[in-house]
Amino acid sequence: MTRKKTEPATTEEIKEEVEVETVEEQIEEENENKTRNIVCVGAAENSGSFCLVYRDDLTIYPGLLLEVGKEINEDEAADLLSLTTFKFKEVTK
Q1: Domain limits at 52?
Q2: Is 79 inside any structural domain?
């Protein structure tokens, strides 16, 4: 049964609320500590490509690991993941 806002909370309700907040904070902390990476799996079948010249300063070869926020930004990561000529996977560390 849910209580009305005018009724005082029970000890159990307060404990549950504190536990939920604590778990949410732990999950948020874990996500902040993880780095998001994009790895190049390789060229798509029948593309005939060996490498991808993505920018003047970034040539991508199979096996290359790119850190989002360092080597590439969020938009570039989304762009790479949506390419059809090369296959990319998202990994977290």
Answers
A1: 35-92
A2: yes
